[in-house]
Amino acid sequence: MSTSVVIRPVGAGASVRDFLRVPHITQGHDPYWVASMSFELGPLADGEGPRLNPKRNPWFQHGEAKLWVAERGGKLAGRISAQVDQNHLKLYNDATGFFGFFECIDDQSVAIALFDVAFAWLREKGMKRCVGPFSMNINDESGLLIDGFNSFPRAAMGHTQPYYQKLVEAAGFAKVVDMRAYLTPMDTGLPYKQLKWLKRSLERNPRIAVRALDMKRYSEDFAAMFNIIRAGWVENWGSIPPTVAEEKYLAEELKLIILPELVSIATVDGVPAGFCLAIPDRNEMIRDLKGKLFPFGLLKFAWRALVTRKSFVSGTRVIYMGVMPEYKNKPIGSILALATVGAVRDASLKLRMPVCEMSWVLETNTQTCHSIEDIGGRVYKTYRMYERAL
């Protein structure tokens, strides 16, 4: 049997089904790996899973992607994607493309073959630099897990094998920045001094009010939160403001599992100025399904998501939090941040979801890192972003 590496593009020599099977081969043995449900990715055919479907995922309105699978000795051995995001290029003008969805057996020759074909495609598109992993851009699953392998990943966070770091770095990539995932016990609460200060500050600032997500004006509240993200995250490394279509897409995606109590919005004079958005850990709902929809996977997920998520799930993940830039680095900004996080903490305890992951946080965002550490958060997973010249 030949042991040569063969690379096949999805749609011309390989199927999306092959693309989806690869992580089952490379990580299926790992008890901490959680398989994505096939409806999340799904074939590129119309009517299938949205993430890879140009007709359903609004990212494709400004992005282009190419997918490949690798075979060694006639067996699936790896996969990769390459992406060009026009919104990123308009914002940064840096001739930078992305790679993502990287999975590989522990074989450097397979990894090199995958990266070579991705690099060649990016060069054809005029790119001079490659950054990743992104699936599809920084607003989706990002970073390569380099520390914290002995625990389950939470919703929309990746999991890899320890040797993946070696494969990526041996392909010429260097670190850009690390992203931290904090495990934060909600039952520890805020330190007494902070609680006292927060209570006194809220009493002295009648302009500030804190409330939960209003499901009756779901779209309006999400639009307000994304407005804070666009304004408040503009200076973050690699930030790409989501489009209106992407905002609506994410809001609809989250609507299936969201609990309004876990979303806290702070207003100043009635105008949203800060928020904290946590979701029940969807991965707890799908761990045992192994990514299979049939015969009972879809029914089990629907039941858990719609009916029993308050009792089935024990943890949450804060996926977004932010404060309008005019309030940052000011006492009122600290009030907004602590008040919204505190409200989510209180709701988590009432829902018996005592453990929260706050992720991801750039290592360079020292103010947020210190704030999370002050309430008992500890780094338990680290994800790394890489770059290399083409």
Q: Number of DSSP strands?
A: 15
Indicate how many domains the architecture comprises.
2
Count of alpha and pi helical runs: 13
The helix-and-strand class reads alpha+beta
End-to-end separation: 34 Å
CATH class of the largest domain: Alpha Beta
**What percentage of amino acids are in beta strands?**
25-35%
- The CATH topology assignment of the largest domain is Aminopeptidase
The H-and-E topology, N to C, reads as EHHEEHEHEEEEHEHEHHEEHHHEHEHE
What does the main sheet amount to? 13 strands, mixed
**CA-atom Rg in angstroms:** 21 Å
Shape: globular
Question: Judging by the overall fold, what is the CATH architecture of the largest domain?
Answer: 3-Layer(aba) Sandwich
What's the pLDDT, averaged over the residues?
87
What percentage of residues falls in helices of 4 or more residues? Answer: 25-40%
Low-confidence stretches: 43-48
Q: Can you offer a commentary on this structure?
A:
The chain is α+β, with helices and mostly antiparallel strands and 390 residues long. It has two domains: 5-172, Gcn5-related N-acetyltransferase (GNAT) (Aminopeptidase, 3-Layer(aba) Sandwich), CATH 3.40.630.30; 184-382, 3-Layer(aba) Sandwich (Aminopeptidase), CATH 3.40.630. 35% of the residues lie in helices and 28% in strands. The protein contains 13 helices and 15 strands. Strands 1, 2, 3, 4, 5, 8, 9, 10, 11, 12, 13, 14 and 15 form a 13-stranded mixed β-sheet that branches. Strands 6-7 form a two-stranded antiparallel sheet. Strand 4 (96-104), helix 4 (108-124) and strand 5 form a beta-alpha-beta unit. Helix 7 (218-232) packs across helix 8. Residues 43-48 have low confidence and may be disordered.
